[in-house]
Design goal:
about 30% helix, about 325 residues, binds magnesium ion, Rossmann fold, OB fold (Dihydrolipoamide Acetyltransferase, E2P), alpha/beta, iron, ATP hydrolysis activity, six-stranded mixed β-sheet, ion transport, ABC-type quaternary ammonium compound transporting activity, binds adenosine-5'-diphosphate, 15 strands, ABC-type quaternary amine transporter, 2 domains, four-stranded antiparallel β-sheet
């Protein structure tokens, strides 16, 4: 049984009368990770800061485990924050950075040392205790920042674009690690990001924001399978959303009813020598009036001869899509 940890109702924040977060309502169960995903400037950081108690609400309520936290100052909420740039203390060693909050709590020396060692192991930095931040890579610094944020076992971890400052390869790897670390620690977390891959890798739930408002939220698979609208689909990483005649043409070639829309997700796979594109079904849904099949194969939107598609394919299942070059039809972009 999961219970609600964080609950936002109609949370609204304005700067000088200009609304940055507009009546956002959300629930986050204990032990889960929620990613708030949206383009730059849509109000993500403002929302996170409001939860942390760093921005006053114009309207609405924030509760944790059923109790109002609006009246509590930041340090009494039991939440921890981690930012894009980690913000480590440059003159302190890795161990002293991680143990900082423990020492503030007057934990004994031996106890602090063993907790720090445990945290360094959790984030994969055993052996780094005596290093200074300046001698670490960007990814290592973010691991230290994460260990430091987790040190006091916050009841909620707030992450603002924790991986955005890293280069793409490292970001991908660290996203996987971040997910593992949060799971291993059983941490309830709210992460904001503009990067859909990062959100998909790290989180259990997704809340899509646009212009201060919440557009859609729910378990990741549900949001992915049925984006609220075209703009949301594109933001989630769909390469195109086909409707009308384009969708009918592609679906007809796939042996599906023609009154449907088809979305194709962007990814990088290479066709094999037989002209087959191996792919993974990301989502498949069939109802009397709609068929939507999302296959994780790059470029398939440019080819309208797709063979064994059907509602019996389950998400995650591997499929091969046979491609008949004579029937390749370009699909208009935009
Ligand atoms: P995001 O994190 O999604 O990029 P922000 O929450 O930082 O977006 O910003 C949302 C909106 O609020 C933007 O229009 C931004 O210019 C504005 N804003 C953010 N912080 C302040 C501030 N301290 N004072 C005035 N306006 C702000
Ligand atoms: Mg931001």
């Amino acid at each position: 049984m999961t219970t609600t940890a964080l609950s936002l109702s109609d949370v609204t924040v304005a700067y000088d009368g200009v609304t940055a977060v507009d009546r956002v309502s959300l629930e986050l169960p204990h032990g889960e990770v929620l990613a708030v995903l949206g383009p730059s400037g849509c109000g993500k950081s403002t929302l996170l800061r409001a939860v942390a108690g760093l921005e006053p609400l114009t309207e609405g309520r924030i509760r944790f485990a059923g109790e109002d936290v609006d009246h509590l100052p930041t340090h009494k909420r039991g939440f921890a924050l981690m930012f894009q740039d980690g913000q480590l203390f440059a003159h302190l060693s890795v161990a002293r950075n991680v143990g900082y909050a423990l020492r503030l709590r007057r934990l004994g020396r031996a106890e602090t040392a063993s907790r720090v060692a445990e945290l360094l192991e959790l984030v994969g930095l055993t052996g780094y205790a005596d290093r200074l931040p300046a001698t670490l890579s960007g990814g290592e610094r973010q691991r230290v920042a994460l260990a430091r944020a987790l040190a006091v076992e916050p009841r909620l971890l707030l992450l603002d674009e924790p991986l955005s400052a890293l280069d793409a390869t490292l970001r991908e790897r660290l996203a996987v690690d971040l997910r593992g670390i949060l799971r291993a620690a059983g941490t309830t977390a709210l992460m904001v990001t503009h990067d859909h891959d990062e959100a998909f890798t790290v989180a259990d739930r997704l809340a899509v924001m646009r212009r201060g408002r919440l557009v859609q939220s729910g378990p990741i698979a549900d949001v992915w399978a049925a984006p609220a609208d075209e703009e949301t689909a594109l933001f989630l990483g769909y390469a195109r959303v086909l409707t009308g005649a384009d969708a009918a043409r592609v679906l007809a070639a796939a042996g599906q009813p023609a009154t449907a829309s088809l979305a194709v997700r962007r990814s990088a796979l290479v066709a094999d020598e037989a002209g087959c594109l191996p792919g993974t079904v990301v989502s498949a849904r069939a109802t009397p009036d709609q068929v939507r099949l999302v296959v994780d194969v790059d470029g398939i939107g440019d080819l309208d001869a797709v063979a064994p598609l059907g509602s019996h394919h389950a998400p995650g299942e591997r499929v091969s899509l046979r491609v008949d070059p004579s029937r390749v039809a370009p699909i208009p972009t935009g």
